[in-house]
Amino acid sequence: MAKKRVVLAYSGGLDTSVAIPWIKEHYDAEVITLTAELGQGRDMEEIRQKALKTGAEKSIVIDLQEPFIERFVWPALRAGTIYEDQYPLATALARPLIAESLVEVAMKEGAGYVAHGCTGKGNDQVRFDVSVAALAPELHVIAPAREWGMSRDQEMEYAAQHHVPVPNTKSNPYSVDENLWGRSIEAGILEDPWNEPPEDVYLITKSVADAPELPVYLEIEFGHGSPIAINGENLNGLTIVNHINTLAGEHGVGRIDHLENRLVGIKSREIYEAPAGVVLHYAHSALETLTLGKEQMRFKELVAQQYADLVYNGLWFSRHREDLDAYVDSTQEFV
Q1: Interhelix angle 294-312/90-109, nearest 10 degrees
Q2: For this structure, is 5 an active site residue?
Q3: Residue 124: active-site member
Q4: Which of 30, 33, 201, 329 is the most buried (most CB within 10 A)?
Q5: What's the pLDDT at 265?
Q6: What is the three-class DSSP state of 108?
Q7: Mean pLDDT computed over 278-295
Q8: Domain that holds residue 68
Q9: CATH at 211
């Protein structure tokens, strides 16, 4: 009898690294890993080789940077999507795209299962589970971190026992997720909202104190609500986001300290870096004050909140999102 096949969304971090031997051990299954290149700034080949050395039968890397910008980030930008007036939804926007790729690979590889490394207290578990159910309800979802009941220290011990190299140590307790649209950091001393984030939390933004004294001016051109050029030069979306991330981050723009309301009913202190997200949302909003009527602007604020909640709650693959897109696209004709 052929073994079960499981396609695991793999980042190379602690949870998904431990998940490879754990799934093989507890489900008697072959594990195929899928890593999405979303601009994390990491060596994808190194991650792929790590998965194979950890026990994966096959390791796949897919570059999703351009579809991420064009199909997910730009529609959210056009809608004015910012969760609780703070969070540009970088992680939340990436999850449905990764789930879509998981489903596609599972179908191609003949796998009946997909898996992710999300815990039982975060939002991402819902985003993955709901997206997979919407796209391929016949697939079964495995969430090892919800099942195994291990603490962080116990995970590291399990990893050591199974010769799994992991980057997390007790001196580096942060949980980080990163893509083109932003970087999120949580856990460790950040869980106490009284603690000011230490400077080593930040990677892509400088503090205001260390930023250049002289300002830099950017002229951003939009077409139907999406950025198309900087300083008169037509550029693709990926180049625009990378350029603004570098320039704005260098000038101390894009740091967010947010105590947010999670989907699962708890509050969580999150630190975000989103230089391009902050700049482009401000620029887009400023353009809309010139091109939209009063009634359009007031109603679009309601649409933006609905859109943000929908994305945050993992409902990207829904008719409601498609309906909201239709209204938003109508408002963007002259933006």
Answers
A1: 50
A2: no
A3: yes
A4: 33
A5: 80
A6: helix
A7: 96
A8: 4-161
A9: 3.90.1260.10
